Amino acid sequence: MDLLKSRRRFLMQLAAAGTLLPLSSSGFAQYLLQGQRQEPRLKVVFFIVPDGLAVDAYSGAEHNGKGLWFPSAQGEDTADFELNEVSRELADYRAQSLYLQGIILASGTGGHNGWLYAMRDSQGSKSSIDRILGDAMPGNQPAHRSLFAGPHAGIDGTPWYVSWEGDKIRTPQQNPVRLYESVFGGATREARDRQLRNAHVFDPIRADIAELRGRVAGAQRAKLETHLDALEQVAKDLEEAVPSLCEPVRPEEHPISSAQYRNQIQAAHHQVVATALGCGVTRVATIQVGRSAESLNILDVSASTNPHDCAHRYAGEAVWKGSRQWYVRQAKLFMDELAKHADPDVPGDNLLKHTLVVLTSEMADGAPEHMLNMPIVLMGGASGLLRNGTGNGRYFNIKAQGDRPHWTGGKYVDMQRIWATIARAAGTTVPYAGDVSPVTGIFSNVS
Questions:
Q1: Three-state DSSP class for 357?
Q2: Residues 315/305, Cβ–Cβ less than 8 Å
């Protein structure tokens, strides 16, 4: 009975996204040796905000690109630019920023269905870029190879999430305390010892599967093999896990569906994700703020108009602008949090120096609901790989490298090529159909 309870408890932990797992003297030695090598290792965070960033002007023709986001630049590739009313929220990190323009998501139309494609291939059929990177560049805890934090994403029961495992949508952890527990639940010695014992729960499961193999054939056997492969992957993750030596701070508990605590919940997610990166638990994370057409008010902006209606300009220009500024300000605050943490691989450096933060949305503008001229900025030290100028930041219009035609004129760069380019910079590739040629001029190690 005790074994059965342990097995159930262990599998429930796995279903909840896992915990810090086993500890061995060899693993400890590996951790120490890794620290001595002092080799920089890139971390990547995708920061996704909903309903666009007002790329078009408040009034006038659609698709004009003259709204509140894109910098006013003196050239197609230049450090001579002025940040706009929304992008100005990131002014503190201008020197570490590369603003891109000339990108299209999927067909450029589709409104709120952009969440189906935002971080994936243009057909919406493959894994999202965070999962691809997580598999290619795991941290010390492979079970957490790609964290997915969802401050206020889907709390109204609408699961429009941007991260995908193949054709299966991933559900983010909406509660930062639960996210903390899933990542750092094994931080105490007692919990670590218990998890090490629980690892042996796999032995009878393997035996059961091995016995069943001889009794089934065809499609049933194929299903059994799939389950066994998944089990072996979890077991491998356990064996490769390395203990975390940091002491994470547990976030405070707040109601996650209350507009009153929106800022606190958001900040707590920042804290947990940054700590996981700083502890070396993971090297890849996604923070999805809200969801497309989200309904939870931002009290700093309006107590009476929800963010979706703000994006649609139903309540006037002030809240349209204020809501877009609030979202971008959250990305700035996350950057601040990264800068507070030490890098786990290079002593003396802060975490931000070796992190690439990608800020974008599932659409370009929330009023006409299009996905043309997508707002995207790459920020952070990125271990020196990001070509963001020589100290004043950089604006780069990549439309000349376009591959996807649009009726508004000319060709635009398909968003999946941005993900292909980031994958190349991280040492891997994307399994996407169509054009996945890298965009030149973004990373020093990609041409």
A1: strand
A2: yes
The contacts of residue 412 (CB under 8 Å, 6+ apart) are 102, 103, 104, 108, 372, 373, 399, 402, 403, 404, 405, 406
Is the separation of the CB atoms in 385 and 445 below 8 Å? yes
Pick the CATH number of 38-182+257-425 from 3.40.720, 3.90.1570, 1.20.1300, 2.60.40: 3.40.720
Q: Within 13 Å, how many C-alpha atoms sit on residue 406's CB side?
A: 22
**For the CA atoms of the chain, what is the radius of gyration?**
22
Residue 270 corresponds to which tokens in the numbers above? 């920042």
Give the CA distances from residue 83 to residues 49, 301, 395, in Å, rounded to whole numbers and listed in that order: 19, 21, 10
The two tokens of residue 29 are 């030695």
Looking at the DSSP bridge assignments, the partners of residue 396 are 77, 100
- Nearest-angstrom CA–CA distance, 136 and 228: 22
The residue extents of the domains of the chain are 1-37+188-243, 38-182+257-425
Distance separating alpha carbons of residues 290 and 119, to the nearest angstrom: 16
DSSP string, 317-345: HHHHHHHHHHHHHHHHHHHHHHHHSBPSS
Element (H, E) at 379: strand 376-379
In 155-194, DSSP assigns E strands to 164-165, 168-169
Question: Rounded CA gap, 45 and 331, in Å?
Answer: 11
- Write out pLDDT tens, residues 251-288: 999 999 999 999 999 999 999 999 999 999 999 999 99
Q: What b/e readout covers 57-79, taking b as 16+ CB neighbours within 10 angstroms? A: eeeeeebebebbbbbebeeeebb
Distance CA 308, CA 319 (A): 11
Residue ranges of alpha helices (H) inside 282-414 are 307-311, 317-340
Tell me if 420 sits within 8 A of 109, measured CB to CB.
Answer: no
Residues of the chain with pLDDT under 70: 1-37, 61, 186-214, 224-245
